[in-house]
Amino acid sequence: MGLIDRIVRVIRANINDLINKTEDPEKILEQTVLEMQEDLIALRQAVAAAIATKKRTERDVNHAQSHADSWYSRAQLALEKGSEQLAREALVKRKSYWETVQALQGQLTSLDTIINKLKQDLRTLEGKIAEARMRKDMYIARARSAQAAAKMNELMDRYNPSGTLQAFERMEEKILQLEARSEVIENMGSRELENKFAALEAENDVDAELAQMKQRIAGVSETQLPGAGQSSAAKKLGFDAE
Questions:
Q1: Spans of biased composition, class Polar residues (predicted)?
Q2: Residue 216: which of 240, 234, 236 has the closest Cα?
Q3: What is the Cα–Cα distance from 104 to 62, expressed in whole angstroms?
């Protein structure tokens, strides 16, 4: 049957082909199952219509058979009454109804074949739909997984981990350089300040020493006398008299 063949081809469709298309695989699968469900409804209606036709045909057979039996009885009655012509006419009527019965019985045989085939197709389609629903869920899960993997690969390509790590390493190196520079500047500032204080301390020492020298010179000038005084001053200045 063409309908069943088409459904089988749909069921055997490759999910990878669906993923590669621009359409949404989930929507395609949902639409496929929906179409199969519609085919199932149509097939059930066909089975119901065939059964209804069979029942009507059976009623027509019974009706024609009843008329054939009735005209046969009338033919017998006419013959018993000595009316051969009337009996002949009754048998002609009976023959007409009997031919109708035979024709309708042939139709019943064909209807039985059709109904059995439709019922078989119906059972097959119901099994295919059950299988399609099961595969649909599996294929949808695979499609979503494939789409998620594709997006992840796209993100990984966009944000290369190695490139990101290299960027962090470069930033870390710059930060270390800045910290080292800051430390150098800080150390230079500290040494400069120490040098300034050292210069001030050295200047104080020179000033103190200069003041002492002035005091010694002033003391010498006040006590200096002719002869001895010069010798005494020379001694105080640390020189030996010659």
A1: 221-233
A2: 236
A3: 10
- The rounded distance, in Å, linking the Cα atoms of 235 and 224 is 11
Distance CA 100, CA 91 (A): 14
CATH 1.10.287 fits 2-159, yes or no: yes
What is the spatial distance between Cα 48 and Cα 54, in angstroms, rounded to a whole number? 10
- Specify the DSSP element, H or E, that contains 43: helix 25-80
Query: How far lies 96's CA from each of 13, 54, 100, 102, 188, in Å?
Result: 56, 21, 6, 10, 131
User: What digits encode the pLDDT tens for the residues 38-78?
Assistant: 988 999 999 999 999 999 999 999 999 999 999 999 999 99
Torsion 22-27-29-35 (CA) sign: negative
Task: Decide if 103 contacts 109 (C-beta within 8 A).
Answer: no
Q: What share of the chain is helix, strand, coil (3-state, %, to 5)?
A: 90, 0, 10
> ∠40-43-44 over CA atoms, to 5°?
85
Is there a contact between 37 and 125 (Cβ–Cβ < 8 Å)?
no
| Closest by Cα among 127, 90, 172 to 11 | 127
Kindly report the length of the chain. 242
